[in-house]
Fold:
Amino acid sequence: MSRISQRIERHWYQPVWWLTALLAPLEGLFALLSTLRRLAYRHGVWRSHQLPVPVVVIGNINVGGVGKTPLTLSLLAELQACGVRVGVISRGYGGNHRQAMLVTADSSASVVGDEPLLLAASGVPVVVGRDRVAAGMHLLRLYPETQLILTDDGLQHYRLARTLELVVLDGRRGLGNGHLLPGGPLREPASRLASVDAVVVNGHGADLPLPADLPRFDMQLQCGMLQSLAQPERYCSPDDFAGQPVIALAGIGHPERFFQTLQQQGLTLQQCLHFPDHHVFSAADLPDGDSPVIVTSKDAVKLRGVIHDAAQRARLWVLPVAAQLTPDLAGWLLSRLKIRHGR
Structure:
């Protein structure tokens, strides 16, 4: 990330008046174009396409990592436990696919993206596609018994009609300075929250300007045991690394949360390496030395395919996280969608 980009991103959460003024014309242009686009779909100039099953969008109105993937994984586990036949469609950011395609265990992150690989590991069908309508139809052709489709991200993909919209917010960073891109972190204005069906707040800290009648669900990320990338059956506790410097490596939207989590686990961070979200890793990205390197689950699916040296692979450890939601979001969804389940 360039120094200019870093300075602008810092301004989103620690605003300075002169950058607000400097970026105002670009922010105004972005606001105009995004408003015209929304109005074009709302008034039928551009058409939204309805799939034959309910579609629940899990998205955000701001840029950067907010925890959508752990939330989606948690929902998938709950829905499967209820006996609901659910599938996922995703844009597949970071992948070079052209047409809608099914994600399998043999898929490459460079083709389908990192997040879809993680979601597919849950056992549900996952289809990636730049056109989410085509992705949804492809999924239903392959799995016609599907009762419900979750779309990972895509809140602003208005071509796909949706039954419910869930917006995920970072409880610490909130909506930043409240400005639209590039003057702030928002893809859509805060007023957009008045039209969504529910909000999920990941963590606590910021004072969020939420509509009074908007259903709210709170999410906390719980860390699991560290898992060896070289020997997936091998697990360790953070206490096993006590007194030993480790390296934290992340290519996600908000790496600071990951680094802080490792410190809260009692780990001594020798170095924190941050790569852009959806970064295409290579073996050269792994630092020299023999210190353990701890990565996110999202990065692990990519590193698994590029780190082939046995000694280097043995250094890699994955910290999985699981979303804990209160109250019961899956139950609320099924009630709103009137989907019967067997649990």
